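Journal club prep — side note

Before the paper discussion, L.F. wants everyone to see what a predicted structure for a comparable chain looks like in C-alpha cell form. Sequence:
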Amino acid sequence: MLAKRIVACLDIRDGRVVKGRGFKDLRDAGDPVERADAYRDGGADELAVLDVSATIESRPAHLRTIEAIARSLDVPLIVGGGVRTVDDVRRLLDAGADKVAINSAAFERPALLTDAALRFGTQCIVLSIDARRDARGGYAIATHSATNSTNVDAIAWAREGARRGAGEVLLTAIDRDGSRRGFDCVLIEHVSRAVRVPVIASGGARTPRDFVDAFAAGADAALGASIFHDGDATPRDVKAVCEEARLVVRP
C-alpha cells in the first residue's frame, strides 16, 4: 500500500499567504517562507503554493516568491496559478517547483496537458479542478479562482484530464473551502474511482479525523490550509491520527 500524503497549502496573493471561504473574503495568514518552513518542520509531506489571483489578473505566478519558498524546502513543491503555456510550466519548474498545477488554461485548451506532459513528464503535471455541486446534484467545474461557472461535469473532466497527460489531480470542493465541515467525500470517491492517477483532496478540513475520512473515500493525499494556519493541528498531528486508524503514512 502506498503511503498517504499530508499536503500543506499556501494560497498566495500579493506576496502574502491568504485564506478565505469559498474562494472569497480572503484574510492575511502570514509570510509564505515562514509558513513553508513551519509546515516542513511540522511534518508535511508536500507543500502546495497556489497564486490565487494570477489567472484573474492575467499574469504568471510570482517567481521570486516561489524561488524563496523552494530554497528552504526539502519536500516536494506543487505550484499553480496563471499557467497558460508550456513555457509557464518550464519557468515554474526552473524556479524550484517539482510539480505544476494547471486549472483554467487546461479547461480552455486541454492539449496543454498533453504538451506539458510530453515535454516534462506526467509526474510533473497536476490537473487542478475546482468543483461545486450543481442543481442536478452532481458536480460542475469552475475556473478562474471559481469566478467562472461552467456546466462541465467534474468527474468527466478529471477522467479526460488524466487521459490527456495529467499525472495527478488536485481536487478542491468549492462549497467546502474554508468551511471546516470536512472534505466532500462523495466528490472524492467519484473522482478517485474515475481516474487511475493519484487524487489530492482539498477543501474543508477541520480536524485530523477529516483526513482519515478523505483517505477512506479514495484520496491518495489530502490537503490542509486553515487547519494548519490557525494552529488547530500540525501535519504531524494528522499523521498520528491516521496511524491510529491503521493507515500507512510517511514518517
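L.F.'s comment for the group: The radius of gyration is 16 Å. Keep this in mind when we get to the figures.
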